[in-house]
Amino acid sequence: MKHTLPALAATAAFVVPTLAEARPVTLETSLRDTGGAGAYVAIYLLDPAGKYKGTLWMAGGKTKYYRHLSDWAQASGGRASEVDGITGASVGSGKTLKITVDITDALINAGYTVHVDTSVENGDDNPSEIVAPLDASASGKPIAGDGYVKAFKATF
Question: Among 7, 47, 52, 143, which has the highest number of CB atoms less than 10 A from its own CB?
Fold first, then answer.
């Protein structure tokens, strides 16, 4: 299921004024079949120095659980208000979250990384379970997680 419109609105800071200088990036996060509750998933961007640049998507609507996405919470200061308009339901066991965002070309191949934190109610928290380079050479190549994420890939 694509969540293009809310994700585009949320990533306005990453999109340059002219669309000719931005490209669509599809982020696909496939979860393992855990047989349990849906996972909370935070997908966010860090610059080459490891400084938080913004949230691309937050799956899971109850803000009281966001603190369990600990690397995102620490990097962003836990600002739940920052994810307004880019949230969706938690991601079900064995399901795939697929979003498309426009990201300015200046951030691609410039050392930025996409991070994915996951957590399940009454389960484990997996901070920075995925750290993927925002690099054209990695486009479409799946990365395995060591928690709830079976595979993650960014395609552009």
Answer: 7
pLDDT (tens digit per residue) in 113-139: 999 999 998 889 999 999 999 999 999
Q: Tell me the β-bridge partners of 115.
A: 44, 131
Those residues with Cβ within 8 angstroms of residue 144's Cβ, 6 or more apart along the chain or in another chain? 150, 151
CA distances (Å), 96 to each of 62, 74, 75, 128, 135, in order? 20, 26, 25, 18, 22
- The length of the chain, given as a count of residues: 156
Q: What angle do CA 104, 105, 111 make, to 5 degrees?
A: 100
Instruction: Give the C-alpha separation, 51 to 47, whole Å.
Output: 5
Exposure of 149 by Cβ count < 10 A (0-12 exposed, 13-18 middle, 19+ buried)?
Answer: buried
In sequence order, the 6+-apart residues with CB closer than 8 A to the CB of 16 are 22, 104, 105, 106
pLDDT score recorded for residue 134: 97
Structure tokens belonging to residue 146: 């060591």
CA separation for the pair 19, 8 (Å, rounded): 12
